[in-house]
Amino acid sequence: MIRVVEFVARRLAATILVLLGLSLLVFLMLRLVPGDPIQVYLGVEVADPTLEQRLRQSLGLDRPVLVQYARYVGRIVTGDLGRSILTQRRVGEDLLPKALNTAQLATVSLMMAVTAGLSLGTLAAARRFTLWDHVGLLASLAGISLPVFWIGLLLQWTVSVQLGLLPSAGKGGLERLILPALTLSAPSVALISRVARASMLEVFRQDYIRVARAKGLAERRVMVRHILPNGILPILTVVGLQFGYMLAGAVLTETVFAWPGLGRLIVDAIKDRDYPVVQGAVLLVGAVFVLLNLTVDLIYVAVDPRLRRSAR
To answer: 171's torsion region: left (phi>0), alpha (psi -120 to 50) or beta?
Structure first.
């Protein structure tokens, strides 16, 4: 038990270091990109030098870069992400509703992806080299190869314009969530189904599966009791990573469907050179991504006895 706690502590320490490195990287990259956020805020043609200098001092942009970064990290530790240069509101006030919208979209997309991907992958493994397997392979290749924005536009034209079944854009009830969730989940369905197929095929070859079948157990019972529990571990990693990718990469889907999420906020903040908003949003996405990986590692240790023994 003590070794397991030490393992968790090491993973938490590594997570903190990764987040610190992420904050430094984003902080430096934004300041190396050409452009001045003060001139964007005041307007290049009408900027008053006195007002510009006063605003630069109030934001701490007249100080050395290392001092700015130290102050930024100090504010993060206290939970203060700063204020937006353009709106002068707290960054958290702008991030929270957008992050909740993106989390809602990503959660529904992940549920669709796991359900469809696991089902297709398991079916392809159980019916390998048959028509089901070939159809699953073609569908996976299409899901991985087709651009997300093209899938979204195709769904809009087919389902909304031609059939009139669902709204084409905007945020509202469940009917406005279905199309963007389907679009965002398409690449993940393809990846999860391929990983599930490979993982299940590996389990199919094990001796205990042959023994279970030799005892006369029904195929459904063999699948539920033996194959799925032992083949699910590699899929957990993919699912955790895909949820992080959905949170970070939903900008195209949010743009196509006019979904007011975090991705669109980041793009707008980058165009406006709004440093605090970009830093807060990227740090939030990075923190979620890293914590998801930590969660997957802990789940691995919890469900796999071999990893628990190695952690000890």
So the answer is: beta
pLDDT one-digit tens code per residue, 37-93: 666 666 655 556 777 777 777 666 777 878 888 887 888 888 777 778 777 788 888
Tokens of 256: 């196509």
pTM: 0.76
Q: Are 285 and 248 in contact (CB under 8 A)?
A: yes
**Angle (deg, nearest 10), helices 91-126 and 178-204:** 40
Task: Please measure the distance between the N-terminal and C-terminal CA atoms of the chain and give it in whole angstroms.
Answer: 7
Confidence of residue 30 (pLDDT cuts 50, 70, 90): low
Residue 277 near residue 265, CB atoms below 8 Å? yes
State whether residue 83 is helix, strand or coil.
strand
Dist CA 120 CA 122 (whole Å): 6
Of the candidates 123, 121, 154, the residue with the CA atom closest to the CA atom of residue 219: 123
In b/e form, how buried is each residue of 222-251, taking b as 16+ CB within 10 angstroms?
Answer: bbeebbbebbbeebbebbbbbbbbbbbbbb
Are 185 and 264 in contact by the 8 Å Cβ rule? The answer is: no
Length of the chain: 312
Distances in whole angstroms, Cα of residue 196 to Cα of each of 2, 25, 188, 227? 34, 35, 12, 11
Chain-centre distance for alpha carbon 234: 18
Nearest to 42 by CA among 89, 84, 85: 85
Q: 175: how many CB neighbours lie within 10 A of its CB?
A: 10
What's the pLDDT at 44?
A: 55
Backbone dihedral angles phi then psi of residue 256, each to the nearest 5 degrees: -65, -40
User: To which residue do tokens 């034209």 refer?
Assistant: 157
